[in-house]
Write a structure and sequence with these properties.
Layout: H1 11-14, E1 21-25, H2 30-41, E2 45-50, E3 59-60, E4 63-64, E5 66-69, H3 75-89, E6 94-97, H4 112-137, E7 144-151, H5 162-182, E8 186-193, H6 201-205, H7 207-217, H8 226-236, E9 248-251, H9 259-271
Parallel strand pairs: 1-2, 1-6, 2-5, 6-7, 7-8, 8-9
Antiparallel strand pairs: 3-4
Helix pairs in contact: 2-8, 3-4, 4-5
Length: 272
């Protein structure tokens, strides 16, 4: 039995976003860039934001995203971004809260300033953007869709990045609460993203050999690609997901194997 059918069309060939307006925060690189390019491919008008203009914009088939400078941690900057999009485009159909991250830091020694920055970026920033998006979407006959990019770090222990993991766990809780408060006009969902091979993967995971070891560990035998996350966004933002709200969609290739399985392997060989 095969799990792949080559005759099935990719979601981008089925779902169209012609005339739709989409904002992707942090959409100029990594996962966010892949998300932006997927929506452009499907016909959407895409706005990406970040603190600084990128060297190049997400572009597909001669159509490019538009960049607006915004620090999602600053409520006034967020309000200005959404006011500009509403004025220029007249609507907003999908918000993808992708901007996030945080440097490794030990919980015992992380400074208050460091911790505050991580929480602002991964929890308060998405909240500010969601609030601004809701004010636009709630007034539209078609409503809208908000997609929060969460992480496996928020669904399992995250040693060495405890504050980041806690902020992503809070984002999952926020997603469910907003879905209940803002229905039926606005659907709110989260994607729990696993390990993804972006342009920085080799440097982050110790080169090609490190990437290969991680690939072998995962049930689907490869790390995710930005397009894997993008396709999940295309689904959640579309009418195909019209009855999906408050959901946590795991895009992690089956998940990470528990460490005890690796630790037990030598003893299994000895016993055999």
């Amino acid at each position: 039995m095969t799990t792949h059918n080559a005759s099935i069309m990719p979601i981008s060939a089925v779902v169209r976003y012609s005339g739709a307006v989409v904002i992707v925060t942090g959409g100029s690189k990594g996962i966010g860039r892949g998300i932006a390019e997927a929506f452009i491919e499907c016909g959407a008008e895409v706005v990406v934001c970040g603190r600084r203009p990128p060297a190049t914009l997400p572009t597909v088939g001669g159509r490019s995203a538009r960049f607006v400078a915004c620090d999602v941690r600053d409520p006034e900057s967020v309000s200005a971004l959404f006011a500009q999009v509403a004025a220029d485009q007249g609507r907003l159909d999908v918000l993808v809260n992708n901007a996030g991250g945080g440097p490794p830091m030990e919980a015992a020694t992380a400074s208050a300033v460091q911790q505050e920055k991580v929480v602002k970026l991964n929890l308060l920033g998405p909240l500010y953007c969601a609030q601004a998006a809701y004010r636009i979407m709630a007034g539209q006959d078609t409503g809208g869709s908000i997609i929060n990019i969460a992480s496996v770090a928020g669904a399992r222990p995250s040693p060495g990045s405890a504050i980041y993991g806690a902020s992503k766990a809070a984002l999952l809780s926020l997603t469910e609460s907003l879905a209940m408060e803002w229905g039926p006009k606005v659907r709110v969902n989260a994607i729990i993203v696993g390990l993804v091979a972006t342009e920085a993967a080799d440097a982050h995971y110790g080169g090609a050999a490190g990437v290969a070891r991680i690939d072998a560990m995962l049930p689907l035998k490869r790390m995710g690609r930005p397009r894997d996350v993008a396709d999940a966004c295309l689904y959640l933002g579309s009418p195909l997901a019209a009855y999906v709200s408050g959901a946590q969609l795991a895009v992690h290739g089956g998940g990470e194997r528990p460490v005890f399985l690796y630790l037990a392997e030598p003893s299994k060989k000895e016993g055999g």
